[in-house]
Design goal:
7-stranded mixed β-sheet, globular, 6 helices
Length: 196
């Protein structure tokens, strides 16, 4: 019999949505406050995706910090050119840090894509001595050699990112609860990534 802690520590389930897009499903049995609000009694799952084009690749979304180590261990996560934070909540900064930390030494900076409100959350996480400080993200963002390993890029509504043979189009989708929310659409397949 699996315990909730066993499920929370399990590696993600990889699902090929197409030959170039993989979904990673992170399951959890531990309930968070908002899951109690919505009546989720058996925990939930979070998804992250990797889209690979002919010349570039993009990780789409980060997951809750309880899955940060597993997120950083996804095959090839350290080699992506972009990490799109569709919802840049403070509880997702450890996963972002794990993906950046997985990059090989000397690799070019990964571009972290987000909305303007999302950039504000990430910038606060990168500032020492404030309530949103995330030491893991600070350590990953700048390598031991002092060189930047990641660069923040605010995407605008309908902005496109070229991956070679496919394009991702970003749409801002703020809500009262998540003002930083953006969607990404793979134009070749029509798949929409909503972070929800």
């Amino acid at each position: 019999q699996l315990t909730p802690a066993d499920v929370d520590a399990a590696p993600p389930i990889a699902c090929a949505l197409s030959p170039v897009i993989t979904a990673y499903v992170f399951k959890t049995r531990t309930r968070r406050t908002f899951e109690v609000e919505y009546g989720a009694k058996r925990g939930s799952s979070e998804n992250a995706y990797v889209a690979r084009g002919a010349s570039k690749s993009c990780a789409l979304d980060c997951v809750d910090s309880r899955h940060a180590d597993a997120y950083g261990a996804i095959a090839g996560i350290g080699d992506v050119d972009f990490i799109a934070c569709l919802h840049a909540a403070p509880r997702r900064m450890d996963a972002l840090a794990a993906a950046i930390a997985a990059r090989p030494a000397g690799a070019e900076c990964v571009e972290v894509l987000c909305s303007n409100p999302g950039a504000q959350v990430i910038q606060q996480a990168l500032k020492a001595n404030n309530p949103l400080t995330n030491d893991n993200l600070i350590a990953a963002w700048k390598g031991a050699d002092g060189k930047l390993r990641a660069r923040l890029r605010v995407v605008k509504n309908n902005e496109k990112i070229d991956l070679g043979d496919r394009t991702l189009t970003f749409t801002t989708a703020p809500t009262p609860r998540w003002p930083d929310l953006i969607f990404a659409r793979d134009d070749a397949s029509g798949m929409l990534f909503t972070s929800k």
